[in-house]
From TrEMBL:
It comes from Gordonia hankookensis. InterPro entries: FAD/NAD-bd_sf. It holds the Pfam family NAD_binding_8. This is NAD(P)/FAD-dependent oxidoreductase. It comes from the Bacteria. SUPFAM superfamilies: FAD/NAD(P)-binding domain.
């Protein structure tokens, strides 16, 4: 019987192990932490009874993942919950751009930009499943839906700054800019429009749901499915060298390229080793979890109903903030992504005490304390927020890296989304999952299609591993 060892039990490691186990492979998963999940964990970080997501929080690509749908994680206890408003982007004027799952409802709130929003995202949302089939996999291959890609391509190639000019109102531009900022990159480079287009389109197709009970519920369901398929999971097992990996026909690495080099660098072909050495770490995040009394007192009342709130001012400010951050400057008003998961999932709260999730984009490796800057950004759009804080838990680059070594220097997206690395990660290759060592494959979010709790990095890596077997 074919055997496989999976190193790392994040969502992609679990997905890789699950696909192999369902294909008849004897799978053993090794996880350094005491619990599975990687970036998809949840727990009581501030006060008892209040549940926070440790990293990933909202899952438009998770609920729309064809692999998770095929597995049927709902059979293993996963329940998706949707907020009434997926995302809000408040402005200093008190106005706000509002993103609904319904593109018509979104357009209705954007005034003269409503029609332009529908033209920018409508066809992508309608055809998202076909488009995602080709984009959420290695880019080097024959597309199954070339006409869909041809329609997407001209928009995707644009810098986000150019696409933003399509919108005439500050509300429309800001709403797009906040979504585009998920790229963690400056906006004036080619291809930077692509991720914002995909996230908005996937939201209009599937919404931006949360997992009931916390994002850890996704990992728990995937682990239960893996166990049901015959796989074995061992926690508290740290792999730091080749000697720590049991002999197996296949080895799947839910690790960063840097960790992979530490383990297999001496065995890699020179060209692969050089590519991994050149792989660039992304920007850093600074995360703060709050326990607050009641709701955030937003100036714009619609923000109270939103699962996600983007805090960064108008498009020009977000653009400039991201440019300066990329240049290594810690700005006074960083872009902040704020989560109110309890709006959709009240099981996370304890009575009237609610969890708030917030992270700021900060310069790579930033070692200062951005807690005050994040609070000030929230206060800017919700005066009186500070008085509602009961407890906080902050994590900078070093703490995020310690929590999960895949988050190198606080990079929670597995590598910079800049230039060709955004589409050719971790290296230019027909099979980007193969690390150049017989039977060893990279299955982390540093492999295609990149970050997101969709499990597709693991699934595609497992497919690559299975295809290798006849040749071995």
């Amino acid at each position: 019987m074919t055997t496989a060892v999976v190193v790392g039990a994040g969502p992609n490691g679990l997905a890789a192990g699950l696909h192999l186990a369902r294909s008849g492979v004897d799978v053993r998963v090794l996880e350094a932490s005491d619990t599975v999940g990687g970036g998809a964990r949840s727990g009581e970080l501030t006060v008892p009874g209040v549940v926070h997501d440790h990293c990933s929080a909202f899952h438009p690509l998770g609920v729309g993942s064809p692999f998770w749908a095929e597995v049927g994680l709902e059979k293993y206890g996963l329940t998706w919950k949707w907020p009434e408003i997926d995302c809000a982007h408040p402005l200093d004027s008190g106005d706000a751009g509002l993103l609904y799952q319904s593109i018509d409802a979104t357009a209705a709130g954007l005034g003269e930009d409503g029609r332009r929003w529908q033209l920018a995202f409508g066809d992508l949302a309608r055809n998202f499943d076909d488009l995602g089939h080709d984009l959420l996999r290695p880019i080097l291959g024959v597309p199954a839906h070339p006409l869909r890609l041809a329609a997407f391509g001209p928009r995707a190639l644009l810098p986000a700054t150019v696409l933003a000019r399509w919108f005439r109102t500050e509300r429309g531009r800001a709403l797009y800019g906040g979504i585009a900022a998920h790229l963690f990159s400056r906006f004036d480079r080619p291809l930077t429009a692509a991720l914002g287009l995909m996230i908005a389109a996937s939201g209009h197709r599937y919404g931006w749901p949360v997992a009931e009970g916390g994002s850890g519920s996704i990992s728990a369901a995937a682990a239960a499915a893996l166990t049901d398929a015959g796989g074995k999971i061992e926690t508290g097992v740290r792999v730091v060298s080749r000697a720590d990996i049991p002999d197996a026909d296949l080895v799947m690495l839910d690790l960063s390229p840097a960790q992979t080099l530490t383990i297999y660098g001496d065995e890699m072909p020179a060209r692969v080793k050089r590519a991994y050495q050149r792989y660039r770490v992304g920007a850093s995040a600074f995360k703060v979890d709050f326990a607050i009394e009641g709701d955030i007192p937003w100036t714009n009342p619609d923000c109270v109903r939103a699962g996600t709130v983007h805090l960064g001012g108008d498009f020009g400010e977000v653009r400039d903030t991201e440019r300066r951050r990329a240049a290594g400057v810690m700005v006074d008003r960083p872009f902040v992504l704020l989560g109110q998961q309890y709006v959709a999932d009240p099981t996370r709260s304890n009575g009237t005490v609610n969890p708030i999730y917030a992270y700021a984009h900060v310069p790579r490796g930033y070692d200062g304390d951005a807690t005050g800057a994040i609070i000030a950004q929230i206060e800017r759009f919700a005066p009186g927020f500070r008085e509602r804080i009961i407890a906080t838990a902050s994590a900078g680059a070093a703490q995020l890296h310690s929590y999960n070594p895949n988050f190198a220097a606080g990079d929670i997206i597995g590598g910079t989304n800049d230039g060709l690395q955004m589409v050719l990660r971790p290296r230019l290759a027909i099979d980007p999952y193969a690390v150049g060592v017989d039977g060893v494959f990279l299955c982390s979010q540093s492999a295609p299609p990149g970050a997101g709790i969709h499990g597709l990095c693991g699934y595609h890596a497992a497919e690559s591993a299975l295809k290798s077997l006849p040749r071995r």
